[in-house]
What does this fold into?
Amino acid sequence: MLKPLLAACALALMSPAAMAACATDAEIAAFVESYLAKTPAQALSPGGSMHDALCSQAKLAAALEPHSGPVIGYKAGLTSKPAQERFGASEPVQGVLYERMMLENGATLDAPWGAIPMVEADLVLVVADTGINSATTPAEALAHISAIRPFIELPDLTLAKGQLFTPETITAMGVGTRLGVLGAPVRVEEPAEMARMLEEMSVTMRDAAGGVLVQAPGRAVLGNPVNAALWLRSKGVEFKAGDLISVGSFGPLFPPRAGKGGVSVTYQGLPGDPVVQVQFKE
It folds into this structure.
């Protein structure tokens, strides 16, 4: 799973200038120390290129594997225009997902779970086979996706006050991966129909008191959430059977206190109108 990231790292190390911007072993070790202590960290690859950022991300993923488990998939971040504009991005950014970050529906966890913990309404695609690597449309991709899983991502913005938040530093730190809650799988039976439902569904995140925090159509993520997988593929990601793909947020991110004890996300328009939820303990 780390091979594509390590390839990016190799590319970044081809020139002395790039080598200077790929995080050093000492910088990675310091970041991991902060990550594990849930304290704000220094940015990796500030001022570097996206190749540098991916090199740093690969080194960070290898360093986190003993703590977070192996990489089990990928995530797309900044998948909406407002998010891109906020961070000066012209396209999404890519990160990774770890085995031990995944929690089951209804989980209860202590807050804060990171240095700068946040909550977002997301969605996960489960790759069925490598045929997805040849897909060019959402319907074609869905023919190689076995299931859709509701997903509340619980990212960590991580960086200390005054540190640069750019597409490159966000990428270098793995796009804030920390935890996430997976709902029950929704099987993909008819790819073309599922593509339509994903685009037209209404995604609503509510706090524990029932107040609406986010309400957005499926098309809020790149026109169709499956386009996140196609974008990752366009950046050289090679998917394999079983990979998880986090498509990105359907609306703004919120600190856990906004949930008033937890949040739920409903996907109205998908089969069964599935719901995923998480509770927080302060």
Q: What stands out?
A: The radius of gyration is 18 Å. The chain has a mean pLDDT of 93.
